[in-house]
Amino acid sequence: MRLLPAGDRALLAEFDSLAEALGAHAAWGMDRPPGVLELVPAARTVLVRIDPAVLGLGHAEHWLRSTADAEGGAGLGAAGAADLQQGRSIPIAVHYDGEDLAVVAEAWGCTVAEVAERHTAVEWVCAFSGFAPGFPYLVPAAILDDPDAAPPLPALPRRATSRSRVPAGAVALAAEYCGIYPRSSPGGWQLIGRTDVVLWDAGRAHPALIAPGDRVRFVPASTGDADRVASALPPPPAAAIAVPGSAPDAPAAGLGTPPPTAESPGVLNRDQGGAPTRTGPEGRDARLEAAPARSLHVLDPGPRTLVQDLGRPGLAALGVGAAGAMDRAAHRLANRLVGNPEQAATLEVLLGGLVLALPEGAWIAVTGGTGPVSLDGRPVAPHAAVRADRDGAELRLGPLEHGLRAVVAVRGGVDAPATLGSRSRDSLAELGPRPLEAGQRVPLGPEPTGPVPSVDLVPIDPPTDGAVDLAVRPGPRRDWFEEAAWSTLLDAEWTVSARSDRTGLRLDGPALARDPAAVGRELPSEGMLPGSIQVSPDGAPTVLGPDAPVTGGYPVIAVLTDAALDLLAQLRPGQPVRLRLATGRR
């Protein structure tokens, strides 16, 4: 086992085989100490995310090594293989008409028709989930059942250039893996077909159709086969999905998502005051269909306004990223100003332009990016709580003059439906409430029992328009790059590209050259953190944001410190950025 640095809040454990990585994941998950927040298995690695305030990286490293040494490499491999013997058998009907069939046929030295024959002849097993919610990384069962067995299919490289959109249901190959895209998304795998089976539905008690350990057989989708396969889908596993920090019968802080019952279909949620509500498979909520007693009326949503809270951490092993407020400090401050708990949902406003009609007596605060804000025509100071004196009072955010995103908190919090324990919108996975629309009524939760804090001044400067320094620490794949590339990363002045959003900020500047030994190499998919700086084959770095996939296949040269993450939210296209090596202890 090699332990690789991954910033100031994670370690990446690397193994010689998939079975060893899965065995270590199982061993560490059975007895993890306080402060270990998440274990994310992948092709040859386990990403170990910690809370540095509870467990230092040095102590985490000692725990990981002692546990792995106690098991031994052979023991870990056997445990990992054994874990994958417990799954169900799932048939999937496929239309073999993918855009890359000819490319795959050429690589395999066979005809296009033989690609389908060879693919359906293999029994696959889901080793882990990642990239997107419900995306299964399938490997041939033969190489897990017998580590010395020859792979039944030749490995395939990813496409040199990723597609901007891969349709939902696409069946694809990369390296030794087969995957199925649960929803439309970017992707660089080789497409060989498509299926009509729904891989992911957050409204189900078990959102992912295919779980680690499940065995998959692909069947050509002739009419008879498709009908037979649809009727043969197995029941879900015995245990419902566990939302971290909650129990099925008593959701923590009103944010848990217990499983539905036969008498009450759909997902049972609780509002921020504990009142039960019902969300169906399509995310509908009864409070949005009946006029809520206390709500915001959206007169103009601006370019893009999202509901955000502190996200849904702890579900990365299912392919579900944390998402949540991009400027966490601004989110927490806005909630504190109106007396909300810090996890209460707020509105994240891109570039300004939001206009809301408030209920009488509503307290609001605006933080983050700054620009003109008015309530019924009266200017509102930044970082201050103000009260609506009448029903329908108009809150108006003008264009932001500094920064990119403003945060609007309303006392009581936005009471949108919760998905997997969170009200946050994940723009890549399309989880959580949709972006606000004109005319929409947005329900509010009950007001907290405590008072609105009396605050005269919050000494916070607006986001800067000039160059921003972002502190970084070495990433796990720094050795994939020339030493000159590391110097360039820290010495160059980068520019935020227009090709940036909540999934990641691409930085324009000099290309970062790979070490000659890494040129042309394929990196097996491994866990990623927000703040990871991935480098694509063209040498361009991208800083991953809160909505980025939980696994990725581009090497990470560096990782932003946790303290630097919030700065990403306010960086505008064209703004200069300098990456600086963080000092002090990890």
Tell me the distance between the termini: 21 Å
- Report the radius of gyration as a whole number of Å: 24 Å
Number of strands: 35
- Biggest sheet, strands in spatial order? 27-34-31-32-29-28-35
> How many separate domains make up the residues?
4
> What is the average per-residue confidence, as pLDDT, rounded to a whole number?
86
Structural class: alpha+beta
Beta-strand portion reads 25-35%
The helix content is 10-25%
Low-confidence stretches: 245-291
Count of helical segments?
10
**General form:** globular
Task: Report on this structure.
The protein is built from 10 helices and 35 strands. It is an alpha+beta fold. The protein has 4 domains: 2-83, Gyrase A, domain 2; 89-231, Cyclophilin (Beta Barrel), CATH 2.40.100.10; 285-443, no CATH class; 468-581, Beta Barrel (Cyclophilin), CATH 2.40.100.10. The strands form 9 sheets. Strands 27-34-31-32-29-28-35 form a 7-stranded mixed beta barrel. Helix 1 (18-30) crosses helix 3 (73-83) and helix 4 crosses helix 5. The chain is globular and about 75 Å long. Residues 240-286 are annotated as: Disordered.
